[in-house]
Amino acid sequence: MPQPRYDRFSVFLHWLMAVLIVGQIALGLWMTGLPKDGSGLRAAWFNVHKSWGMVLCLLIAVRLAWALLRPRVAPPPGARALQALAAGAHRLLYALMLVLPWSGFFGSVFSGYPIRFFGMPLPKMASRWDGAKELFSNVHQWAAAALVLLVALHVLAFLYHQCIVKDTLLQRMRWPRRRARNTCSTVQHFS
Ligand code: HEM
Ligand code: HEM
């Protein structure tokens, strides 16, 4: 039977990844502006970005698997067209969350620079190939721009629900509150 809200694990992954992805985008935009001055600062921050990017790659795999395995979550009440639009937007968010780390990873593999996972060098997987590096870098950049746009729309949709429709959409993506133990229905009734 479809569930009326998201389970704890989905809520945990949603908010953890929202924070990590926003941080990762900010880091990506900032680090590309660092000078190539031979100090090693740029390379160090690039490796921080690559390491967290690979962590995100694992998290999205777990999230996707969980989204397919968990019981279906019923759409919030509303017009059919809006429900279909929201489902489409969520699918696109998932697709971008997959494309981003993989394009970043392959761009880095073909750049010829070593990839360090939190300091630990990964084995060299390919030699430098400028054409492939350029292609994956472009995909990475465009996917990041699309994700920023879609997350902005996602937050706008959330604000629409919160401020205009005034429904309980956020409750569906909130950590479920524990029911108070000795809750007496009469007390609830009169309070
Ligand atoms: C990088 C940032 C974000 C991404 C990638 C993202 C992605 C998603 C996805 C894919 C879903 C569908 C549920 C799932 O399968 O997990 C979802 C649901 C939801 N998100 Fe986000 N989200 C982000 C940030 C935010 C923010 C900042 C807010 C609010 C301010 C928000 C509010 C919600 C709500 C309320 C739902 C539940 C919608 C429903 O009931 O169907 N999200 N999000
Ligand atoms: C969800 C995960 C990721 C997000 C949201 C993300 C986001 C970004 C953003 C916004 C930029 C700046 C784009 C620009 O203006 O050039 C960037 C650049 C970059 N990212 Fe990521 N990234 C992710 C994962 C990764 C991974 C896993 C790697 C490599 C293992 C990586 C490697 C790079 C590199 C090397 C750049 C510099 C520009 C280039 O050469 O393409 N990223 N990333």
Automatic annotation (TrEMBL):
Stretch forming the signal peptide: none
Q: Which residue ranges does the record assign to the Cytochrome b561 bacterial/Ni-hydrogenase domain?
A: 5-173
What is an example of a Pfam family matching this protein?
A: Ni_hydr_CYTB
Q: Where are the transmembrane segments?
A: 12-31, 51-71, 92-115, 142-165
On the tree of life, the source organism's domain of life is Bacteria
Q: Which UniProt keywords apply?
A: Cell membrane, Electron transport, Heme, Iron, Membrane, Metal-binding, Transmembrane, Transmembrane helix, Transport
Q: How does it sit in the membrane?
A: Multi-pass membrane protein
Alphabetized GO MF terms:
electron transfer activity; heme binding; metal ion binding
Swiss-Prot/TrEMBL GO biological process terms: respiratory electron transport chain
Question: InterPro entries from the entry?
Answer: Cyt_b561_bac/Ni-Hgenase, Cytochrome_b561_oxidase, Di-haem_cyt_TM
Q: Does the keyword Isomerase apply?
A: no
A cellular component term (GO) from this record?
Answer: plasma membrane
Q: Which cofactor does it need?
A: heme b
Q: What compartments host this protein?
A: Cell membrane
The family annotation for this protein states:
Belongs to the cytochrome b561 family.
Q: Matching PANTHER family, A to Z?
A: CYTOCHROME B561 (PTHR30529), CYTOCHROME B561 HOMOLOG 2 (PTHR30529:SF1)
Supply the name of the protein.
Cytochrome b561
